[in-house]
Amino acid sequence: MLEAAAIIVVLAMALVLYRAIKGPMLYDRALAVNVIGTKTVVVLALIGFIYDRPYFLDIALVYALINFIATIAILKYSETGGLG
Amino acid sequence: MVIDFILLFFVVVCAVASVSMKDLLGSVMILGAYSLLMALLWTRYNSVDVAFTEAAVGAGITTVLLIAALSRTFRHEEDPEKPGQSIFPWLTRIARLIPLGVVMLTGAVLIYGTLDMPNFSDPAAPANLHVAPYYIEKSVPETGSINFVTAILASYRGYDTLGEVTVIFTAGICVLILLRRRFHG
Amino acid sequence: MIEIIAGKYNYWIYISLMMIGFYAMIAKGNLIKKIVGLNIFQTAVFLFYISMAVREGSTAPILLSRAHGALTPETATYTNPLPHVLILTAIVVGVSVTAVALALAIKIYRAYGTLDEYRIAKLEQDAE
Amino acid sequence: MEAIHSPLPFYVMAVSLIAAGLIRLSKDRPNLREFWTIGAALVKFSLVLVMLRHVLAGQTFSYRLLTVFPGLDIAFRVDPLGIFFAVTASLLWIITSFYSIGYVRALDEHAQTRYFTAFAVALSATMGVAFSANLFTSFIFYEIITLCTFPLVAHKETPEAIRGARLYLTYLLGTSIAFQLPAIFLTYTTAGTLDFTAGGILAGKGSDTLIAIIFVLFMAGIAKAALMPFHSWLPAAMVAPTPVSALLHAVAVVKTGVFMILRVLLDIFGVDLLGDLGLGTALAYAASFTIVVSSVIALRQDNLKARLAYSTISQLSYVILGAALLAPAAVTGGIMHIVLHAFGKITLFFTAGAIYVAAHKTKISELDGIGRSMPFTMTAFTIGALSMIGVPPLGGFLSKWYITLGAVEAGQFPILIVLVVSTILNACYFLPIVYAAFFKPPQVAAPARSNPGHGHEEEPHIYWPWKKFGLQEAPILMVAALTFTALGTILLFFAPSGFLALARMIVGG
Amino acid sequence: MSLHFPVLVVLIPLFGALLTFFAGLFRRTWAWHITTYATLLSFVVSLDLLMSVRATGRISYWLGGWAPPWGIEYVVDYFSGYILVVISFISFMIAVFAGPYVKKQIGPERELNFFVLYLLLITGLLGMVITGDIFNVYVFLEIASLSGYALVAVGKKRGAVVASYNYLILGTVGAVFVLLGIGHLYMVTGTLNMADLRERLPDLYHSRVVLTAFVFFVIGFGLKFALFPLHTWLLSAHSLAPSAVSAILAAAVLKVNLYALMRVMFTVFTPAFVYEAVPITEIFFVITPIAILVSSVMALAQTNIKRMLAYSSIGQIGFIVLGIALANETALTGSLLHMLNHALMKGGLFLLAGVIIYQTDRYHITDWKGLGKTMPLTMLVFTIYGLSMVGVPLTAGFVSKWYLAIGALEAGRWYFIPVILVSSLLTAVYFWRIIEWGYFHEPDDPEDAKDRCHVPWAMMIPIMVMAFLLLFFGVAAFIPEGPARQAAAMLLGMQ
Amino acid sequence: MAEHVIIKTVSRLMIPFIQLFSLYVIAHGELGPGGGFQGGVILGASFILYAMVFGLEEGRKRISRKASDFFNPTGLFIYAVIGIFCILGGGRYLEYDRLPLIGNEILASQLGIYGIEIGVGITVSAVMTTLFFEMARRDDD
Q1: How close B43 gets to chain F, by Cα (Å)?
Q2: CATH T-level topology, domain C2-54+78-127
Q3: How far from chain centre, in Å, is Cα E53?
Q4: Could you give the number of structural domains in chain A?
Q5: Which chains would you list as touching E if contact means 3+ CB atom pairs under 8 Å?
Q6: Which of A50, D187, F40, F49 has its CA 20 to 30 A from that of E492?
Q7: Which chain B residues are closer than 8 Å to F86 by Cβ?
Q8: Extents of the domains making up chain C
Q9: B136 and C82 in contact by Cβ < 8 A?
Q10: For D143-165, what is each residue's pLDDT tens digit?
Q11: What is the pLDDT of residues F34-86, one digit of tens each?
């Protein structure tokens, strides 16, 4: 059951992945990559449940954090042309 | 199992897209996604510590650093300029093929080597038999760490880790000597 | 034949990733693109190591619980931790190399105003 | 033969090396510097004489300086052949030193310190070759000679001099690295040793082909012997100042070449081995070819020094010819030719230098009637030339006589024809000069090209007395030197016993 | 304490680097002194290690107290002891030189980080040499490589950065190939310890995985030490780096990577495998003569001194590899001696080039007119180095070539002798050219070079010491020959 | 990004938690995934986030150049010195069991591991911060 859910989420990733590659605009890509990140968090959580290892939630947390930072970096660069 | 296949497929797609994209920012972003997916894959393969690191480093720090570099250089890949009108155009054309040849050759060697490898996820693979079981059996009594990876990293092969930290420190100094202009003190 | 392909599917993927990255490293003219290729190239090797450690029906190399026989854990239960350790080190090395390469790229751009290999070579030739 | 372990040969070699250092240090005090040169020459010669006495008494000296690695030593040994060469070279060094001082002071040459330093080092290395106990040691000193004579050849630093010097270096260094070193190497791997041993070390080791290859490599590698086709460096080296040509390119350097060839023939291959393989005959014909061809070329040279150079090439091959005939008399003749040619040719070069210093003439066509203004010089020239031709009672006759005897002994009658032809050719290129100098009227055309600032009136530090006799001779130091060697040439005919005794010892084993 | 010498030899430069950095926060001028003392200490320790190896045999040090193959092991044997001494000595010499050089040529604001990186480079190199664990090689390889890249990039000309970038890309390819090789070996043996690998591998020599691993080791390290067709990065990197860096790159970094390959070839694999099971020697027999000859000819065509030296390095590496391929004790001894000699010669030559550039700022040998008069000592020393490069007897260069030639003959491959000779001749030509420019041409402006500045003794002394050693080892060749022969015998399994 | 109030507020709220989390990761290395390196990266990332959101100038006020420079080698130093202590305690280099003044071998070993994890964390976070600050800096600074 959980496995099926995981597969579906991963499959859904294909849609955003298409957007991420195709573009055409920067914001399409930024959003798509961000969505990939969030989906990854979900899949991680699911895998953690499947394997019955709670540690996976730690990783999911890191993903969420890092995804946030990366997105900020992308947006800041696209808006101001720099990171400083 | 199915998830693995899909993820592997995605990873390859991301790699191709990231390499072939003209917009460098897009390329970097896809590279970030590539790292995330790779980390996901590694979680599937039970290597939680590596996935943890790859998520933090590959998807996070590397992306930020790449963007930082982009912000100080140029966002788009320039069109490959024709390197002058050669007298022998076919020669330049062949020269262009050399990298492809090298890559193919490397791939061929790898494939040749892989043919004799134990199958993927084979429990009897020699890699898992000789040294590894010792760590799993002994790390808790000998080091007190229940995370075997940490036990090896910090204790059995602690010296490698010292080297690893030295590498990081070296990288820091390298960037300082390259980019910093004014110095205090 | 089928057996070989199916039995080692992971290795084929890592080989193709490596070839993609390697190609970008040596064939692409843009210096940042080379670094992107370098990352893919390195990650491919990491995938190789991680795949090597996988053992059917095993779990992450963290002791399930202390009660579970703290002194002699069942070795087949856990994935081989050694390649993980090696790759942790290798990832750190990878990010270090990337950082230095990026710093160099920044310096090159500052000196030449371009990141294209052929243009830089041409500028160097003109300068001689 | 009794062997004495003594560092004496090393000291003989080192004397001029130390002198070179002292010369370098006293570069600001010309007189002191010249004192070192003369002093070293005298000390060296007396040390050589000391050893000569022992050698004549049937003793040899040996001394091992150091071992580079097992099997490769730097070692000295004094045997009759070595002392023979050493006596010749060290005796002539004394004379040349005086002559050099006259020459460089008269012309007010630049870089005199470098000149004398290099000269002293060259002499050290020559002694080193003479006293080497094995091929490795002799090779090292052989190379040192090449390197330290380069500054002497390039002395003038004109583009022409540099070009000549570069050619010189290319030939000598090139052949020795390309041919001699492999030959030594192959000898080492074949025979397992490099020590000079009477009777040879290669006999019975290795196949005939291998030995023939080694032989060819040696002959090509010792380019200092100027065997054709490796002779072009010698005319090129004539850009050097004349004393250099006189001592080095008539005595030290070229004789080092033929000396090495003798060493290799006698002590590496051995007479028997060469005879068995027919290599001696082949070498004899190669030498004959060189003798005739270079004589013909010499005929066509108008530059005096170039003519002398080609004559040298031809005469060197006499030594090789003598040795290559393998008959005892011929070998004796060849060895004797080392000293006899040395005296004759150095006289000729001295006169050429004297003419240059006194009259600034280098071309033969300008020498008409010069015998009147420079009677001493030209008389010496005549003596030297006649000795070269082989007219008794001059030294040159002796060696030719022995070689002829040897040729008959060896049954090589074609060689006799070569000797006759060569003698005629020698006469053809020397006698016209003598004739022109004494019997043609002096040229009225432009007086000698005088180098500005080099007029002898302004030369305070050299004794130049000829003016008052209405002569235009070179400084007295130079004339004295050339007179001395000319007399030596005559003397050697009448009293060759010391050298002949040594030569007999060498041949006798 | 001497029990811990194996690890201390690596830790001393590491602590030196840290100390330099901390001290630099307060006083920058200490950097050079700390560097010099650290490398000196490291040299002394490695000398002691070599002595004790010769006295007692192989030394094994278990890091963390864990027995191999579970822990990491440091191994000092004849081979690593010998190379340790060579590397630490060269690094000490260059450290002494670097002080005044860096101050003027690199600038005081980068001085501190320069020395930190230099010490880290030495740490990496020594770590690579002494370790007995194959993955540990990779880690220290990367420390050395990273610091090497950055050190190249501090060169004065802007091209240095590009050279460094290309070096980085190809160097990383090499390092990743090495990592792949390690992975392949681990996959079939399950161990990373070299001694353990040596025991477990013979059963697997038929395996394609092992063969692939071997190929990747050769190519990976080959990229790092500029094996002939993989040498492209070397030319610009070595010629555009600051001279002190060029010196350490040519003298130490190339050698250590070559050492690593030899260690893998001879102590992880066995000579039997290397010489019989794989056609590697045949490949070397083809590429090394080409490398030697082509690089000599190319060196002849250069007028930039450092580029010329860089080309010559490729040929000299060819000599060393040739000795490995010849597969007998004499030739291998020659190779090992040539590693020492080339380290001394090329290190010294780059330093000399540094001195001349320091003084006159001239890179082209055609501009070196009359240096024999304006810088007599420098030119004299240069002549000694040139003679040794040519291989004139009584210099160290002769000894190693002699051994290689005898080795070639012992192996029945006499046709390498002409190769060695021709390259010596070409070397003679391109060095003689410089000596002639220096001694037999008048300087354009005699006062020109004298006026600029005075070369400090700290720069001249290392060069003179190394020149002296070249002469000394030329006449007393038995001193380095002893350890080298023992090492060669050990590698070939005779001891 | 002066006017992006949401981002600023969110960041200001999140950064302490990120840092806390990073400390958890460093300390938790023996028990679960993570360790000095990962924790260090996250700690570094929190500084990077701060600098990105509030500007480099502002970031440098919080983490001065001198401080980050000082911490670059500090972690490595701690790590290496722990090894030396092991030698002083009579063991091999990095043999934590022999850490002096502790007595209990397992405890010593665990403390040793903690010590080096902290060292790794310090160096990694400092270097990551340095890398970002040096790379993101404008050329005209």
Answers
A1: 11
A2: Helix Hairpins (1.10.287)
A3: 22
A4: 1
A5: B, C, D, F
A6: D187
A7: none
A8: 2-54+78-127
A9: no
A10: 888 888 888 888 887 888 888 88
A11: 888 999 999 999 999 999 998 888 888 888 888 888 999 999 999 999 999 99
